[in-house]
Amino acid sequence: MNPLTLDRQGADTRQSCDKPDGQAQQREATSPAAVEPQEDRARPSRRFRPLAWLWNKFPTLMVLGVIGGVGYCGHRFEWKVPKFSTLVGAEPAERDDWCAEHGVPESQCVECNADLLPRGPQYGWCREHGVSNCPLCHPDVAELKETPAVSPADLERAALGLSVEERARNNSVCKLHQRRLQFASLDAVREAGLDVALVQRQPIQETVEATGEVRYDPTRLASLSARAPGTVWRVEKYVGDTVRAGEVLAVVDAKEVGRAKTELIQALAQEELQRKVFSRLDGLSSQGIVPGRRAQEADAASVQARARVLGAQETLVNLGLPVDVESLRNLGEDEAVARLRLLGLPESIAAELDPRSTTGNLVPLRAPLDGVVVERQVVAGEVVDTSRVLFQVADTSRMWLMLDVRLEEADKLALGQPVQFLPDGSRQGVGGKLTWISTTADERTRTVKVRADLPNPAGQLRNETFGLGRIVLRQEPDAIVVPNEAVHWEGCCHVVFVRDKGFFDSDESFKVFDVRTVRLGAKNEKFTEILAGVLAGEVVATKGSDVLRAQLLKNNLGEGCCAAD
Ligand SMILES: [Zn+2]
Ligand SMILES: [Zn+2]
Ligand SMILES: [Zn+2]
User: Fold this and answer.
1) Pairing with 370, which of 197, 241, 465, 503 sits 20 to 30 Å away (CA)?
2) What's the burial of 347, exposed, middle or buried (CB within 10 Å: 0-12/13-18/19+)?
3) Helix, coil or strand: residue 238
């Protein structure tokens, strides 16, 4: 700002201030050294009037007063709009009657006032069953109007269930089972979305699950090749055909067979000749007509000829053509040849053939067992040798189930345990028994192979089908079960929340759930077996019981015995 302008403004101000007072202007003129603008402005205070001053300051004081009032009220009511009743001094009790720790009115809080709902008997830790306040040993702890009976069967089931495998353990020093969780009212229970269910008795089974594959029983599976190289002359059976042991699958034309038959015929003729020679020489030598040496030589030749017959017979047996040599000895040579020509062929085939014109090389390939032709690798006219598998015949009335069990579960298995198998895509399961457990584990998958024999009379099981197997460890027809969602892990124990037996005594009765430590057994899609901790007929929190767990852990934080997750 221009200093000149300022100066001028200052002068103007002085003028306008001083103008109304003529005396002042004169005094200024007489004593110019005392001219001070401040002194001029302070001048009215010399005549101070309290009433007028107050009147002038009234608006300011009003504003300050209102601000002060609002501040006080805000602080007093924590910056909430106070109820009318509070303002008028009628202080209701409910504001202070609230137990923040347990979420219910202080005056009704059973945790803060133990006398309101006295605790039942406390029996402490049960070493046998691994729960606190064990209902199996002390049925009077059950939240039921009448003390239930615990049968010897119940105790036996618990003992077996706890011993059959390593179960999750509870912390013996944990005190959370003493806690009770309370709702202010039935409406509060409803708002929390809490459901309950009866502790029931139900059949349940404990199983080890494993994926697996159905295979032919290799002890009942035959892979068949030709006994001698040759050409397939005829195929009799096809894949899927049911066959009986001994039935002909195919007929092979093999030169070796013809040769073996010829050899037998020749050996028989030779044997016959040597026999005759010997008997004549033997007679002559005994009469002294020929030397005894000649008879001995004939005897040796006769033995040799018999050995040749046996060798030829053996060759035919090895080709799958057993032959009755004794009956052939009584036949003439032509008849014997005719008999041997169709040797081994079944009547059904032999009847169609002319024994005089048909080749003598034919040899049938027979099924060694009752079963089904599961594979055929040959057609008529094909050249085959002895190394090639032409047919596979399987007895499918029993099948093998190979299961891969996780290594850590293999210890639970024993031979003879029942096995259930559900093939993929099938709704009908098949049952069998565990017959073999491998002594080695697969180094890559860390699984152990086990086998079950499955009956398959209707043939519904097929080779190389996959599916889910269950090995049954324990079957309980009458187990104590709760819905799966009722069970919680609170950090060191499994617990369920049991509804107090007085819950529905009246509208005012305390809506309380007790914490009960439990030991778990088998589990299926819906239910968990409780080996110890609750008894049938008690009522447990199910759907929405996470609310109770959260409340339990909230109150437990800092208590130290359990680590909340
Ligand atoms: Zn409380
Ligand atoms: Zn017990
Ligand atoms: Zn615990």
Assistant:
1) 465
2) exposed
3) coil
The separation between CA 120 and the C-alpha centre of its own chain, rounded to angstroms, equals: 39
What residue type is assigned to position 492 of the chain? C
Ligand nearest to the CA of 131: 2
The string of DSSP codes covering 90-112 is ---STTT--BTTTTB-GGG-TTT
| Cα 336 from Cα 259, distance rounded (Å) | 15
How do residues 306-351 score in pLDDT, each as one tens digit?
A: 999 999 999 999 998 988 888 888 888 888 888 888 888 888 888 8
Q: Which ligand is nearest to the CA of 565?
A: 3
For residue 227, the Cα-to-chain-centroid distance in whole angstroms is 50
Rounded (10°) CA dihedral 106, 108, 111, 113: 90
pLDDT tens-digit profile of 76-120?
555 554 444 444 444 445 567 889 888 899 989 998 998 898 888
Residues 6+ apart with CB under 8 A from 396: 216, 371, 372, 374, 456, 459, 461, 463
Residue 431: closest CA among 461, 462, 386? 461
Tell me the residues surrounding ligand 3 (ion) with CB < 5 Å: 171, 174, 176, 492-493, 562
H or E segment to which residue 417 belongs = none
From ligand 3's centre to the CA of 119, what distance in Å?
19
Q: Ligand 1 mean position to 498 CA, how many Å?
A: 19
pTM above 0.70, yes or no: no
Residues whose CB falls within 8 Å of the CB of residue 343, separated by 6 or more in sequence, listed in order = 261, 316, 321, 323
Regarding beta strands 200-216 and 398-406, do their DSSP bridges make them parallel or antiparallel, or are they unpaired?
antiparallel
In this structure, which ligand is nearest to the CA of 150?
Answer: 2
Domains (range + CATH), the chain: 3-48 (no CATH), 106-207+475-556 (2.40.420.20), 209-218+395-473 (2.40.30.170), 219-253+363-394 (2.40.50.100), 255-360 (no CATH)
